[in-house]
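hey can u run this one w/ zinc ion bound, need the structure tokens asap thx
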Amino acid sequence: MFKCKNCNSTDKFELMFSPEYKGARRYAQVYNEKGEIEITVDGYKFIPDLQFMNACAVCSYCGQIYMWDYDMKGRS
Ligand SMILES: [Zn+2]
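ok here u go:
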């Protein structure tokens, strides 16, 4: 799980797409059996790491970017 260091919301984010990206921008997120987020973009599935989050994810609650950290409280 990831949390926004600005507003402390967890896993509330949207992806930023570069203006050159030509795909349909269909985006989905699910949790796998290990509690990790799996993101699917236009059929391509991957598990985001912190570097990816801080490059490509904007907090959908407060709008901050580059403010993500792992949320260890969310792991059991
Ligand atoms: Zn936020």
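The CA atoms of residues 30 and 38 lie 5 Å apart. anyway lmk if its weird
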